[in-house]
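Box 3.1. Reading complex inputs
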Amino acid sequence: MSELRFVGSNTPRPDAPDKAAGRALYIHDLKRPGMLYGKIKYSEYAHARIKHIDTSKAEKLPGVRAVITGYNTPEIRIGFIRDNFALKRGKVRQFRDEVAAVAATDPEIAEEAVDLIKVEYEELPGVFTPEEALEEDAPLVHEEDPRGRPRKDNVVPVPWRFVSGNVEEAKKKAKYIAEGHFETPLIQQSCMGTAGCIAEFDLQNNLTIYTKTQIPFLAQNDFNRALAAMGLRGRNTRVIVPTLGGSFGTGLDTHAYEYIAILLAYKTGRPVKIVLTREEEFISLSPRQPTKTDIIQGCDENGKLLFREIKMLLDNGAYTSWGATTPSVMMLPISSMYRVPNVYYKTTIVYTNNTFCQAMRGYGNPQATWAIESNIDDLAEQAGIDPFEFRMINRNIPDDVTPMGLQISTCGHKECLESVAKKLNWKEKRGKQRKMARGVGMASLFHVGGSGRVYRSDGTGVIMKLDDFGNVSVIAGGVEMGQGFNAALAIVAAEALGVTPDKVTVVTGDTATCPWDVGTHASRGAFTAGNAAIMAAEKARQKIFELASEHFMRKVKKQLEKRKKKDPNFELPELDYERVFDTSEFDMKENFIFLKEEPDNPLLRVSLEDILRAAHFKQEGTMIVTEAFYDPCNEMIDPKTCRGNLSATYIFGTQGVEVEVDLETGKVKVLKFAAAHDVGRVLSQQTIKGQIYGGIVQGLGYALCEEYKTEKGRNLNPNFLDYKILSAPDINFPIEIECIETVDKEGPFGAKGVGEPGLVPTAPAVANAVYDAIGVRIRSLPITPEKILAALRKKAKG
Amino acid sequence: MRKFDYYQPESLKEAYKLMEKVKGEAVYVAGGTDVIVRIKQRAIQPEALISLRGIEELKEIRENGGMSLGAGILFREIEASDKIARQYQALYQAACVLANPQIRNVATLGGNLCNAAPSADSAPPLLVLEAEVELEGPGGKRRIKLEDLFTGPGQTAKEPEEIMTRINIPSQYAGTGTAFLKIGRVSQDIAIANASALVAIEGGVCRKCRLAVGAVAPVPLRLKSIEEKIEGQKIEEELLQEVEKMVCEAVSPITDVRSTAEYRRAVSGVLIKRAIRQAAARAQQ
Amino acid sequence: MKKLIRFTLNGHKVSAEVESHRMLLDILREEFELTGPKEGCGQGECGACTVLVDGYNVNSCIYPAFEVDGKEVMTVEGLLGEGNKLHPVQKSFVENGGVQCGFCTPGMIMSAVALLNNNKKPSEDEIKRAISGNLCRCTGYVQIIESIKKAGEMMP
């Protein structure tokens, strides 16, 4: 490949200056003329019948324009199995159930009005663990399924099950076996910018909604369905995405608060804004799926993995959202991380009266990897093999097809393992620092790198529009949420087209004007939009060179004549100004078109904008707009066999950490952190580093201190005072990262996705290091000093 | 948030008059980092706030052998004080780890004490320094020992209409060292347990010892019986191990959203042990 | 109750009649339509609302508006020079990857400015302490710390 000018560079993000100047407009900053403020009343019980809602006092409060409940609005069913409702009727099933809502002329009046709404409940017994919910006579969270048929138990009908080979036979053949029970808690995405929207109808009852979403087009579909339920079938929704204050998966769903804003906007005829406070965000926005995992793995006498058996119990919470689909992603590492011929995986998902869960960065992979990679170390110990060596024996390899049907092409797993082992001085340190209560540990990851086909279309469209000044608008359907989508796309577009990045403006976030995209998830943004941009750029170049074949020499002549006028001593060269060109003779780089045969001739180059203007401002002029829709060559998983090549390519990585444990306080001190990620190709230095460092720090939070605490369904720490995320002084150790470039043939300039992997293997790497340091294995996250001290005491007692 | 009136008196007398006027429905506020947050959390809903920020005499610092700090002294100012950093290291250490710069730029020492959280970081250092506080109200002035101020979690012996005006730290022996330690879930945290020690060494032997722990009992706690065991002894490892056990038995922590009683109990002993070591090392410098 | 407060905002003398229960953050965002300081938590925990009052960084979400009377307030908007010229700290954040989703950025920059105005060559530890009250969920802080260090080198 010829030298790349912008791919891999340190080009700053195009969105950074506005953000640094405080000018970027988030949902919190947006106002619409005549806007009202909405506020939601949440349930006061985890499980109760709604006996009566008295809204009379609230309605009379001056400034209140509407008070709605599930009883005076059309029923809107939400969630992918439609077991949830925008406003609840009949009964409440969790503390965060939305029971009523108000729209008022200012936020303080709205808050006061919500307090004036009185709801009478009849409390019902609830179930707060999946085990409780599975008991014989457990109260039912849902008495009926979404179709009105009576339910007999609390089991959610989305059974995920994967089988390859024969695990029972393999158990008999295995020389070494390790088993364990592992748990992960509820944790919150904790975006710095909370969720919110502004809903507004026009006079034809078409809806425009400004909202914090990662799925503008799927949201458009969801909201159109809601409009139909409201008697507005055939009306359309325009979703506009403002600057996002982070997302981390919260924007992969449409939420009750959005539907409530829509209902209020329709009822009042005014735009209605609902923005969640931090407390509401903690309580009512769905967190990461918790898991309880029983894992058994076995290997032969040489350390080769023979089988992996995993049974998981998932607390679904009161309604079904993406948390219930995390097993479909967990299946990837479960079936395919390391080469394992025999795999059995089963999940049971159970309704409870706890909060329900949605997507969070990694989407199940961190939870599965926590169990797998912790247990791999246990198994390696059983086999008497160093954990790094054990991983090298079983590592994934390029051009392999896994039992799930995942077609691995590029695979930098080996390089990642070696990189981390080297950075941590693994051989010198592993197993040798127990006296100082120090240890090293590592863990790997396996994730989708070329999108993940979870919908029938996995496509992304890009439109390229050139103006008279050589500026390029790259209009894409994805969203920028801080991960660097705009930066990566600008770089890819510029490189592919042959312009400089400062000429590129990335335009996103409007379903009315941007081409369709399934959503910015599965680390797919740069991969899919980048490929679509390359396709659109190729079309644009073709058109540009067609124009050039007509206008190039004319322009060259004009330029030379101009120069002669300025400088009479200049000698006009002998050129064939009537020459007819084939488009293949041209090239364009950094805004200039030139001839391939003479790339360095300063006289034979014409700026892009000159060619574009010449083609535009003439009889039967023309302008250039091209588009492309890229749908990767991946497959949906067959629901019966759970097999299929889910992604166009896969990513690998290893993280490792050296820790020191304070034996008296149980506190874990990180001494050094190393990460190596197979990224295919670095598109943007700044953004890739940001994704990896940011992922690592989120991963360390998951490992060490983040936990959403509940008591009988009630959130006990809905604030940053008691839900702890790491701050700058916590990062008091060096972090060394390495990007391994395997240059994938499917990715734009070889790049693979990198949005999620940064936090997938972090927690087990820490647990494995703690084990090396003090000989104690913590099996539930977070790895708190309380758990370590308790485990040390237990160990001391023998 | 419910509305409240906000008064800005310029003298203590004015403050009392306002408190009397609004009687029972008003609360004093200094930096606001506790009071405003509690209003926003709807834990309290006063009709009015009477701000002490504009009262100059609450900011005076006087030196008289020891140090008399106006209750309105900011934690930022404590952090920046060379004298406190040298002579009352524990207080300096506590000021450095209390919350973060934004909070320290407005939060006051008096506010931290009057809020009376069992985990208040400024309490253990001032307890081992045997500080006294001055309270003033419409009825007059009085002084009480800091250890007598705290009566329960969030509760003090101060009457609602009284204002804490000064925190007086007595002069200390030469050869006195103090230390403050804190454990949180992460670096930016309310203490799960904190501890302070004051040690004066003379002739290789501990002449004076004061110990205090926080977040492990309903109030920040002096550990007087343990202090007595240490005074007159050489500070050696065997003694410290014993002290650690005694501390664990002396405290009465709870399990809450932040930590467990068992953990707090275990760790309080460790913190005291380490605080004594640090204070002793400083005493001998 | 209401009061007319008079203060200096980003170098300009301003005034506003405000209600007694309102916080500085509300006044800045509503009366003065500034979008830089943000509400991230409303309880003084996250630092997204950080502004400078008389040069010190404070959480404006719990700073009573009445108290700003007679003082000097600086928000991230006040750092821009003529012709939309970015302040060295802003420029450094842009060039060194200190900005991702950007929600924490205005507050983070103000804490950095408070530090660098007093100490242009801070150690890494001093930088971390200075921004210990500014939470960020995107960057992992590494490139933010780098941005602040480099900004100090660029400041006059």
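In summary: The two ends of chain A are 62 Å apart (CA to CA).
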